[in-house]
């Protein structure tokens, strides 16, 4: 009989109460490795280190954070999924590596549907459309009007092809009928440098970590938030949806994952520990400082988020004929 992941989750839920503690009785008996698939200092790294502290404090163990950046998060994710499924190698999975990459790369080295054991969502980071002060518009209505008057002439920067920033721009074009020129960069630093210099007039930022200070200082114009809900970092900046594009919501989420086959008791223990920690006022405050919100879920809930966004972005990637670099 073929058992789907959804059936497996249902079976796990039914058996957890009756099953003996098993692997969880002696877990953890050695340090845990937590792989962050991006460079130190960014929102993913900050969230990962918060999760490492939560696990370490709750389980009285050492959690070593390992940054393995590359390929939009795919390199570090692959390293996690190819590790022994014993609960001692965990990873921060991002929307880029879990939901976007399967629809973008024809030969991804891992299969999200079969290789990932979701543990919980961790956080959602809000992004923003920002512009150089020289542009002749200050809100989304003005951007759309300018783009329609100059089709294909208004360019925007992104950290690279297939990033959540790139897809947010493609999504906006698909629902408004505007045509923008994409200028992909090799990462966020180079893109940020050129938008501040005015080399490229527009940018779709996946995080407010760097965007918010530049808007607050007047170095950039805030045009719109790309996810639902205002941000305390930019409380006066309206969302795309508030500015007339109904249903527009492009958050950048992150979650905790393990290799498929990790003992269900260990998954359940980690879920409880991390979910409790994400709800603490200290965690909420730390996430707010980087323009993010905690996203505690059940393993099944996180799995559903991955599946839903994978379908959504695969459809857009195909419709927009996006190919990896």
Explain what you see.
With 325 residues, the protein is α/β, with parallel strands linked by helices. The protein folds into two domains: 5-125 and 251-319, Bordetella uptake gene, domain 1 (D-Maltodextrin-Binding Protein, domain 2), CATH 3.40.190; 128-225, D-Maltodextrin-Binding Protein, domain 2 (3-Layer(aba) Sandwich). It is 42% helix and 18% strand. The chain has helices at 5-16, 43-59, 74-81, 95-104, 112-115, 140-149, 164-176, 188-197, 208-216, 264-278, 281-288, 299-319, and strands at 32-36, 63-67, 89-94, 116-125, 128-131, 155-158, 181-184, 202-205, 221-225, 252-259, 292-294. Strands 2-1-3-10-4-11 form a six-stranded mixed β-sheet, with helices on both faces. The chain has a five-stranded mixed β-sheet with strand order 7-6-8-5-9. Strand 1 (32-36), helix 2 (43-59) and strand 2 (63-67) form a beta-alpha-beta unit. The longest helix is centred in the C-terminal third of the chain and has 21 residues, at 299-319. The chain is globular. The two termini are 40 Å apart.
Short note summarizing the structure:
With 325 residues, the protein is α/β, with parallel strands linked by helices.
The low-confidence runs, each spanning 5 or more residues with pLDDT under 50, are 11-20
Cα distance spanning the termini? 40 Å
CATH class of the largest domain: Alpha Beta
CATH architecture of the largest domain: 3-Layer(aba) Sandwich
Order of helices and strands: HEHEHEHHEEHEHEHEHEEHHEH
Which secondary-structure class do the elements indicate? alpha/beta
Oligomeric state, counting identical vs distinct chains: single chain
CATH fold description of the largest domain: D-Maltodextrin-Binding Protein, domain 2
Biggest pleated sheet: 6 strands, mixed
How many E-type strands?
A: 11
Rg, please? 20 Å
Chain-averaged pLDDT: 92
């Amino acid at each position: 009989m073929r058992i789907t992941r959804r059936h497996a989750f249902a079976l796990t839920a039914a058996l957890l109460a009756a099953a003996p503690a098993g692997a969880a009785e002696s877990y953890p008996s050695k340090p845990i490795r937590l792989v962050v698939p991006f460079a130190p200092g960014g929102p993913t790294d900050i969230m990962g280190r918060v999760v490492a502290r939560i696990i370490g404090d709750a389980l009285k163990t050492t959690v070593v954070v390992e940054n393995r950046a590359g390929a939009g998060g795919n390199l570090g994710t692959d390293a996690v999924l190819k590790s022994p499924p014993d609960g001692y190698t965990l990873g921060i999975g991002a929307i880029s590596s879990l939901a976007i990459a399967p629809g973008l790369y024809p030969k991804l080295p891992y299969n999200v549907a079969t290789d990932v054991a979701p543990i919980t969502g961790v956080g959602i980071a809000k992004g923003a459309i920002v512009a150089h002060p020289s542009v002749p518009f200050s809100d989304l209505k003005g951007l759309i009007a300018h783009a329609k008057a100059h089709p294909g002439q208004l360019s925007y920067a992104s950290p690279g092809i297939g990033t959540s920033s790139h897809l947010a721009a493609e999504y906006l074009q698909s629902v408004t009928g505007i045509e923008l020129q994409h200028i992909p960069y090799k990462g966020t630093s180079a893109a940020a440098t050129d938008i501040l210099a005015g080399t490229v007039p527009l940018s779709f930022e996946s995080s407010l970590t760097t965007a918010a200070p530049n808007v607050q200082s007047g170095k950039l114009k805030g045009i719109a938030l790309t996810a639902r809900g205002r941000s305390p970092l930019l409380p006066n900046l309206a969302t795309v949806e508030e500015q007339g594009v109904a249903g527009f919501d492009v958050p950048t989420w992150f979650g905790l994952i393990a290799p498929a086959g990790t003992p269900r008791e260990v998954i359940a223990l980690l879920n409880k520990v991390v979910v409790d920690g994400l709800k603490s006022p200290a965690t909420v405050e730390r996430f707010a400082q980087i323009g993010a919100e905690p996203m505690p879920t059940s393993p099944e809930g996180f799995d559903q988020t991955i599946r839903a966004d994978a379908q959504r972005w695969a459809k857009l990637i195909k419709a927009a004929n996006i190919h990896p670099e």
